[in-house]
Amino acid sequence: MRGVALYIRSQTDRRLDRHLRDVSIIGIGQTPVGEHWDKPLRVLGTEAVRAALADAGVECPEALYVGNMLSGQLLGQENVGALIADHAGLSGIEAYKIEAACASGAAAFRTAYMAVASGLCDVVVACGVEKMTDTLTDETTGALVAAADAEFEGEHGLSFVGINALLMQRYLYEHGYDRQDFSGFAINAHRNAANNPNAMFRKKISAEAFARAKIIAEPVSLLDSSGIGDGAAAAVLASADWARAHGKRQVRVAASAAATDAVALHDRDDLLFLRAAWLSARKAYAQAGVSPKDIDFFELHDAFTIMSALSLEATGFAERGQGVRLAMEDAIALNGRIPICTMGGLKARGHPVGATGMYQIVEAAQQLLGAAGANQLPNCRLGMTQNIGGSGATVVTHILERAG
Amino acid sequence: MRGVALYIRSQTDRRLDRHLRDVSIIGIGQTPVGEHWDKPLRVLGTEAVRAALADAGVECPEALYVGNMLSGQLLGQENVGALIADHAGLSGIEAYKIEAACASGAAAFRTAYMAVASGLCDVVVACGVEKMTDTLTDETTGALVAAADAEFEGEHGLSFVGINALLMQRYLYEHGYDRQDFSGFAINAHRNAANNPNAMFRKKISAEAFARAKIIAEPVSLLDSSGIGDGAAAAVLASADWARAHGKRQVRVAASAAATDAVALHDRDDLLFLRAAWLSARKAYAQAGVSPKDIDFFELHDAFTIMSALSLEATGFAERGQGVRLAMEDAIALNGRIPICTMGGLKARGHPVGATGMYQIVEAAQQLLGAAGANQLPNCRLGMTQNIGGSGATVVTHILERAG
C-alpha cells in the first residue's frame, strides 16, 4: 500500500510533459457482434480495420495495435498483430498485440495514442478483436478465468461469473438492496441496443423478464450478465496537426489513463471499491481538466450489472452504495442525467472480450460525431469510456471530445 | 505489396517528430534462465522488476509493460500486467501485457519507450517473462506454433522447428552450404554463455559435437536450436532529462523500430529474405543516424542457426547468402568484426520466448555499461538488438548507445 500512496501522489501532482502532442480519432469501423462462424479472427479484424481506414480516407497507416485476450487459449494463435496487418493488406507496418484481459481493447487504443502522442507516428490504427463462439461454452468459460488469478481463484473452481456474484452478494448485503434493483442496467442496455444494427441482442426486455431470468451464480442472473460474441472494432488515430493539415474530421482524445489493482479479490482491501477505476478516472479527469459533471455520457464496462454500479461509484457519478440508484431512477437513460451504454453496452451490444474496449471508443466517437442514429444524444461534447480487465484489476479510461 | 511499397517510402522519407523526447535505460535486472519449477510466473517477473528498480534506485515507476507470449496457453493466466505489478508491490500503476510471439519482450520495451518518449511518463519498467517448463514438452511445442499461422501451418502439423527446417533446407539448396557450416553460431553462443552466470547452458561445445548432434527436423539439429526455459528480464526507462536531473547512470535508446511480414511462409515472396528484419533495421539506422559499420555488437535472434544467418543478411552485416560465412570465419566472436550473442544468445543463455527480447536489451546494456564481466567488449559504444516473432513475422530492432 505504501507504493500505491506514493504512486497516486506522483501521478496526480505532476503535470504531463509539454512534449505531448494532441491526438485525434479520424476514422472508425466495426463489425456486428455475433456468432461469426464463417469468419476467422483475421477476417473480423481486417473488416474493422479496413472500415476504419476507409472512414478516415487513409490508405497506409504506420502501425496497428491489436487488443485481444483469448486468441492463444481458444484458437492456438498468437502473433495476431502481424497476422491481421498482413490480411488487411498492410504487411510491413509495425504491429503487435496488447492484452489486459477484458481491457485489452482500450489498452490497444492507449498504445496507439502513445505512438502518436510521442511523435513516433502520425497515423496509426487501434483494433480490438475477439472470436469466442467457435469453441464449446465450457471451454470459453474456462478460458475467461484467465482474467482472474488462475492459481488462487481459477484453480479452486471460481469462475468469472462466480467472482462477480461474490461482489454483487456483498453489495446487496452491505447496502441493503434487492437483486431486482439492478434491473434498470439491463433494461437500459437492451433498449439502446434495439436501435444499434451492430448489437447482438436487439430486443427490449422488461422488469418482469429480469425478475424471471435464470440465476447463474446467486445472485447473478442471465440478464445481469453480458453475452459473449465474436466481433472487431477499430479506430484510426492521427496527430491533430496532421489531421488538420489533411482536412480530416476529428474527435479529440482529451485524456487517456490506465491503472491496476490486485487481480485476486482476496488481495483487495475493499471489495466494493474499484480502486483502479477510481485511479484511472482521476488521472483522466486531471489530464482533460474536467470533472464528472462535465461528462455528457459514459460508456462503462457493464460485463455484469454489479460492475456498472461499482464503476459509476468509482468514477464519481454516484456516492458509495448509490450507483445502483442511478439505474433505479433511470438517470442512465439517453435522456437521463448520465446516459450510459448508449449503443447497448456489453450487456446487449455483446461482449467479445478483447474487442469491447474498442467498441466503447467507436460508439463514443459515433455520439460525438452525431452518427449515433436513433440513439443520438443532443449536443454532447464530452464522452468517457471505461474498460475493465478482470473484476477491476486493469482499468483503462478515456475521455473523448467533440472537435470545434 | 502496393501497401508495403507505400509504407516503406513513408517510413524512410519522413523525419521523426521534434516532439520526441530522449529516453534512457537507467536500471536492469534479470533472473537466471532455467527450469524454475519452484517459482510461478509472477515471482519470476517480480524478481526481474525489483532487481531493475533497485539497480536504478527507483521506488515507484509510473507503468509496467510486460512482454509475454504463452501465459494464456500454458498457464491459463492472462492479465499478467496487473498480476506482476501487484506482486512486485507496485499495484496501482498502469500495467498490461504485450504479445508478439517471440518478439514480445522487445515489443514491451518499445511500448515503454513510447510511454516515456511521448511525455506521458517519466519513469517506467519493461519486463519480459516466460514460464515454459512446468508443462509437458509436447504441450509446450504445440503452444509455440501459435507464433506461426495456426490455421494454415499449425493445423497441418507443421511445428515451429519444422518451419525453420524448411528455411534452412532452402538456404543450403540455394547457396550450396553444408549444415556443418552453421556450427560456428552454436559454438560462439556456448563459448560466450560459459561466462554468463544467468545462462542456461554454460558449457562450451565443439565442432565435432555439433556434427554428431541429433537431427530434430532435417537439417535442423539439437545444436542448431535454442533451448526453451523459464526466466525474466527487465529494464527501467526514463526520460534523459529526468535521468540527468536525478543523477542516474544512463544507456541511451538511440533507436526503436518495429515492422511485420506475412506470418505464413507460403505468403512470402522470398523465403530467405527477412523483410521485417530488414525494414525495422533500416528504420532504426535512420533514427539513430548510423549504418551497420557503426554497430559494435549485435544481439540477434538465434532461435535457430538459420535465423542468425538471415538476420545478419537482412540487417546489412552480410550480403545475401553470406551470413553463414561470418560464423565460418568466426567474425562473430567477441574479438571479431561483429560480435553477436555476447552473453550466449538464445542458443545458450536460453530462450524463454516472451522474455528473450528483454534479455537481449539487458545484455546489450551490460556491455555498454562495462558490466559484462569476462565477456566485456572493449570500447563499445553502439549495440543493436533484434527480436524476431514467428519466423520473421514481427521484428523489433533497437540501437542502444553508451552515454558520454
Description of the structure:
2 copies of one chain form a homodimer. With 404 residues, chain A is α/β, with parallel strands linked by helices. Chain A has one domain (18-135, 227-399): Thiolase/Chalcone synthase (Peroxisomal Thiolase, Chain A, domain 1). Chain A contains 15 helices and 11 strands. Chain A has helices at residues 2-13, 41-56, 71-75, 80-87, 104-117, 137-144, 160-175, 183-193, 207-212, 240-245, 275-288, 305-314, 323-328, 345-349, 356-368; strands at 23-30, 63-67, 94-99, 123-130, 215-217, 220-221, 231-239, 251-260, 297-299, 382-389, 394-402. In chain A, strands 3-2-4-7-1-8-11-10-9 form a 9-stranded mixed beta sheet, sandwiched between helices. In chain A, a hairpin with a 2-residue loop joins strand 5 (215-217) and strand 6. In chain A, helix 5 crosses helix 15 (356-368). The first copy, chain A, is globular and about 55 Å long. The mean pLDDT of chain A is 95. At the A-B interface, helix 1, helix 3, helix 4, strand 3 and helix 5 of A face helix 1, helix 3, helix 4, strand 3 and helix 5 of B. Strand 3 (94-99) of chain A pairs antiparallel with strand 3 of chain B.
Give a nutshell description of this structure.
Two copies of one chain form a homodimer. Chain A is an alpha/beta fold and 404 residues long. Chain A contains 15 helices and eleven strands.
Keywords:
37% helix; 404 residues; homodimer; nine-stranded mixed sheet
